[in-house]
Amino acid sequence: MGIGFIQVISTELLSNRRLVRCSSSAATEIFSSKKLPVIYSEKFLQHDAGRPHPERPARVAAIKKRLSEDKEISESISFLEPSTDEDTTLKFISEVHYEDYIDQVKRLSGYGDVRSLDGDTYVNGATYDTAVTAARAWMDAVEYAYKTGRPAFALTRPPGHHATIATGMGFCIFCNAAIASAYAIKELGLSKISILDWDVHHGNGTEAWAKTNPQVRMTSSHQYPFYPFTGAESDVGMHNNVKNVALSAESNWSTLGPRFRNEMLPFISGEDWEEPDLLIVSAGYDALAVDSLAQIALEPKDFATMTQEILNHLGHGRVVFGLEGGYNLDGISEAFAMTVDECIKFVRGKEVG
User: Fold this and answer.
1) In order of start, what are the domains of the chain with their CATH numbers?
2) Is the model's pTM score more than 0.85?
3) Are 217 and 241 in contact (CB under 8 A)?
4) What is the distance of C-alpha 261 from the center of its chain?
5) In this protein, which residues make up the domain named Histone deacetylase (predicted)?
6) Residue 29 banded pLDDT, cuts 50, 70, 90
């Protein structure tokens, strides 16, 4: 559709009610359309190490190409530019990260060349703007999913779930899932957010933030012990709002599947945590057998199964899927497409029902 959310809607809080002000008929089209939004920008191609690196622009380019070339999927989605409200975006980035760290990313990016935050994580001249735009894309996806009751996708990079309050790490700059959650709670007024992270690496940055907020529950499945060497099952947080499912190397769906159904799904929405207002999925695809950065052996169809079971368990589509890791281009393209396809089927089923 090529119209940024900020060009379409402006919002304000009045009498504790969220109002939508339409600046064009496109707003009605976006929020009434049966198409599902994929929030994406060509800016996400600009964060580049300038050398071979697993976290590269081709990741999102390959996924976008796969979605666009699938006739059934492409007719059911709209690619939307993130909004350009940088002040609000920075406000919520600051809810999750120290100002000194945000300034550090901006300063390093301002030099224009490629520099390192750590041994894995780089910054180039476009990184600051790209990472801010990525955070905004997740925020836009949250707003869309909550207001329409239909799934939304943030096809973004760099990833975010390893970024801590004080530093980037593990290819991550800003912690998008945490930022989007803070936005949902403090801007949209939601009271309960669930986060499910199926990336092969434990989302240490997201978890650290979630532990401070009793309005949030987070569950993560990940290879363990493995980078970033956090995510033990015994770590539940002071609010008992964290559940880690640690998988040994070479685990596959026969290992994860029962734990996903019997532990992770009831944790994000169950008897002691009634239906959350929204679910955010940190959708990394590096647990695929074809991904060389880890040793878990999932197949693309397993991500389709998880997506289907999430939606059926919740019974609604207020779900955001935001890209985290995944470095085999064929693998992530297929798995992401299967995730989207399951969401399309779910929405169609609800319409028929």
Assistant:
1) 37-352 (3.40.800.20)
2) yes
3) yes
4) 21
5) 53-341
6) low
